[in-house]
Specification:
GMP Synthetase, Chain A, domain 3, Rossmann fold, single chain, alpha/beta, phenylacetate-CoA ligase activity, 26% helix, ligase, AMP-dep_synth/lig_dom, 5-stranded mixed β-sheet
Length: 379
């Protein structure tokens, strides 16, 4: 893992090995050897996450962004978009061990990992980080609450990684079945942890921490209880930028990340998430994710891309629709309003593409004055 002081040597190496990064910098007449300060990184235009599907489609599978041959990678994932995500050969490739150690996870823990191991990288992100620490991992994946609670009870699981809403669901089921759950620590990401849920977990003796990352970048920031908000990962440079100009701001802005990943060197990568600096901690701590910019919305930990949704809705014969994201009882809900009924095959096709299960509501007329993908959650 590269330390902050090594950012320039990292950038020079990435320039040499990543054809796409070299083209980006050459197009702006930027010589990485001439950059003297981190602030000068802002000369490099922001690469938006929403650009990745088109860039990758033009030059499969990674848009010439990686520094290795495809057959030299440990794993390849597919995130919604579609976006292909490469995994190099470092054990903790996405850098979450730092966050998990700050949350108190140790080699003595038995940890239930409820993130998916199928196509998307989240399951392996935390599996590899936990193994780096030395913890025992149960690769549970999402869903199947009965089996999950049985595992927790039979194996006396001490740690949990996943979304807060799913742990809440498991604990409710365990209470109903009068099963003992020994979980004492939990790490959440991919979904906002509300204060009410935090209080409920801690009342049960579960010490909870949250972090922030993406499928592309891995760990970006995490809670460490040594200061307010989320601490920036040692493997990242974070800027909060104007989403249009890419100019760094002292106020609320888009999270733009440079990740010290020698396999997949993302430089000035616009995540589409919005945050602001914790007062007095500029460059060191963010308050968390406040919302989204652009045309993508994160629902239940997965990005739903407006263009991809439009395409599949047109394919199933329903080009006029509106998808609305809300939060009910601390859980994300996706409702798609349509003007005609869809059969189960069409609904399943939509589910398979966006990887989130929506509720379909048939209405007389869809509101076409708003965007077709709307986020109405109160952040």
């Amino acid at each position: 893992m590269v330390v902050m002081e090594g950012w320039k040597s990292f950038l020079i190496d990435a320039y040499k090995l990543s054809p796409a990064l070299r083209e980006r910098l050459d197009a702006e007449n930027i010589n990485p050897h001439e950059l003297k300060t981190i602030e000068q990184l802002s000369r490099i235009p922001v690469l938006k996450k929403e650009q990745l599907p088109l860039l990758q489609k033009h030059e499969l599978p990674f848009g010439k962004m990686i520094t290795k041959k495809t057959n030299e990678l440990a794993r390849i994932f597919m995130s919604p978009g579609p976006i292909y995500d490469p995994q190099g050969d470092e054990q903790d490739e996405w850098g979450f061990s730092e966050a998990l150690q700050a949350a108190g996870f140790t080699r003595d823990d038995i940890v239930q990992n409820t993130f998916s191991y199928h196509l998307s990288p989240a399951g392996f992100m935390f599996d590899s980080a936990l193994r780096q620490i030395g913890a025992t991992v149960i690769p549970a994946g999402p869903g199947n609450r009965e089996l999950q609670v049985q595992l927790m009870n039979d194996l006396q699981v001490t740690g949990y990684v996943g979304t807060p809403s799913f742990l809440h669901l498991l604990l409710q089921y365990a209470d109903e079945k009068r099963l003992h759950v020994a979980v004492k620590k939990a790490f959440f990401t991919a979904e906002k942890l509300t204060e009410s849920m935090r209080e409920q977990f801690e009342q049960r003796g579960i010490r909870v921490f949250e972090g922030y990352g993406t499928a592309d970048c891995g760990c970006i920031a995490f809670e460490d209880r040594k200061g307010p908000g989320l601490k920036i990962s040692s493997r990242a440079i974070v800027q909060l930028c104007d989403p249009i100009t890419g100019v760094p701001l002292d106020e609320e802005g888009e999270i733009v990340v440079t990740i010290f990943d020698r396999t997949y060197p993302l430089v000035r990568f616009g995540t589409g998430d919005v945050s602001r600096w914790v007062e007095g901690y500029k460059g060191e701590r963010i308050v968390g994710v406040l919302g989204r910019v652009g045309t993508s919305v994160k629902v239940k930990g997965m990005f739903v891309h407006e263009q991809q949704l439009k395409q599949v809705m047109t394919e199933v014969g329903c080009p006029i629709f509106q998808a609305v994201v809300t939060k009910e009882n601390d859980r994300d809900q996706l409702t798609i309003y349509i003007e005609k009924e869809l059969d189960e095959e069409a609904k399943q096709k939509i589910n398979n593409v966006i990887r989130v299960t929506p509720t379909f509501v048939c209405v007389h007329r869809v509101n076409e004055e708003e965007r077709c993908l709307v986020d109405r959650r109160k952040w």
